[in-house]
Amino acid sequence: MPDAIVNKVAESGLITFDLEDFYPKEEIIVFDLKEYLFMGLVLKEKDFRAALQNIQWQQYQNKNIALTCTADAIIPMWAYMLVASYLEPFANAVVFGNRDTLIATLMIKNLSKLNGEELAEKRVVIKGCGDVQIPEAAYVEITNKLRPYVKSIMYGEPCSTVPIYKKK
């Protein structure tokens, strides 16, 4: 049949890689030390320790926690360590930084489990658009992870890609 429509994208052997598959599934919570500062400026050790003892830490079970302080205050390092020690038995992950830092860290952790050898000599398209905002760090990580193995890396959609890498 000479007039048959041929799907050249389907026949190209391209593998579309969606970074949304590596996005953290668990709830993300920002734990802000600002709430525990005296007058929003100073961390008083005795009051801080007492406040932490009154928190129901079970509420953080299987959650991803970004540990930060959004107030313009000097926070001693032990304060972050103390909160992390309370969170660790319950939280899925505890990362110092804001929500974006947490997401990027978790995505890199999830991508580290990927076996690049499974895509050896394949032509890979890293999906560029989606429903979720993917951190730039995840795009850099997937490029570093796949480049030693794949035949080529492209960015975008199979019908319209930007070449990133091609094995010589």
Task: Give structural notes.
With 168 residues, this protein is of the alpha/beta class. It folds into 2 domains: 8-24 and 113-166, no CATH class; 28-91, no CATH class. The chain contains 5 helices and 7 strands; from the N terminus they run αββαβαβαβαββ. It has helices at residues 8-11, 45-53, 77-87, 99-112, 136-146; strands spanning 14-17, 28-32, 64-68, 93-96, 123-127, 152-157, 160-166. A 4-stranded mixed beta sheet has the order 1-5-6-7.
Q: Which key terms come to mind for this protein?
A:
single chain, 168 residues, alpha/beta, 2 domains, four-stranded mixed beta sheet, three-stranded parallel beta sheet, 7 strands, 29% helix
Count of DSSP H/I helices: 5
Shape: elongated
Number of DSSP strands? 7
Stretches where pLDDT falls below 50 for ≥5 residues? 6-11
Strand portion: 15-25%
The helix-and-strand class reads alpha/beta
Domains (count): 2
Question: How far from one another are the termini?
Answer: 37 Å
* H-E order: HEEHEHEHEHEE
Query: How many whole angstroms does the radius of gyration measure?
Result: 22 Å
| Main beta-sheet annotation | 4 strands, mixed
Strands side by side in the biggest sheet: 1-5-6-7
